[in-house]
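Quick one: sequence plus zinc ion SMILES, need structure tokens.
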Amino acid sequence: MKPQELCDIDDLATSLVVDVFLGFNTHKMNTEHKERYKCKSHLKPVIDEFIKNQSMKLAFESFWNRKYIPDHLFKASYKKLVRDHIERYMGMFYLDSGFRIEPCYRYSLENKVGAKVNATSHWHKDGIIKRLVGCVAELTEKEEDEILHVGKNDFSVMYSCRKKCAQLWLGPAAYINHDCQANCKFVPNDKGTACVKVLRDIKPGDEITCFYSANFFGENNVNCECCSCEKLCKGAFKTNEEQPKLGRYNFRQTNGRTNSYRSPDKSKKVKEPKTPQKKKNEVLEPCTPNKNPEVDKGEALLGSPYTKIIQKTRGLDLDQASKSPEK
Ligand SMILES: [Zn+2]
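Reply:
Sure thing.
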């Protein structure tokens, strides 16, 4: 899928499935056309029926209707793409899925109303949660400029150092939150998708989390609001010494992180965080595609810490050719 198609189809799928299930609107890529992709709450019976009969064919017959599908997607050429992507979300209701997207009232960046992914069955270390997938679409720099709006819809963008481009990453797995002691990690799947590998045993009800990076929420994740930080009185919950007066997440750290990924200067390599479960080539890392030097200031940057990056060659093959915002 091209990036704009992925944005449109993902917004459609989340509005038809996730938002209907949760009862409120969740993240959208098309910030200008929010109305088009609003929660269709009266479709709840379609989901209830699917949970009982597990028939994607029947569910899709209800969804594929001019009333719900925007005109530009209501075409034979899009039908399969739309169906497949809706099924990725409906996948959480399959009996064997082992996860559900649930409401999350934790993170200040989402004004404390967002979503998370919870396990619905036991998962054992090294297991793969196959239905918990994300779809990747590579972005040209022009598309980055056209599609991404800092702090508004850059919640799931990664930067591939191997391919030297930013990538949109959307699907059920884009609802996974960060945790400093994450129980899962993102791994490449079939072409154009990624899914989730289990790092330690998980029981039903546990939140499924991934580690975005060591400096995602400020340096050393000083502003991290994850559950592990709360338990260990770290990150945003650290009380025994003075915290930087950031209020919320700090762009400066994001900017520094970005520069370190994009800088051609090898001395600015990102250090390998000391997390034993990491392997090269299979790591999700955060980075804001920082093509806007002017974004160095202002409230618009608050969303930046959502921005994620898959760095395929962690710290070893930094993007030598990319532009450096410092020059
Ligand atoms: Zn944390």
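Confidence is low (pLDDT under 50) at residues 247-327. The chain is about 25% helix and 15% strand.
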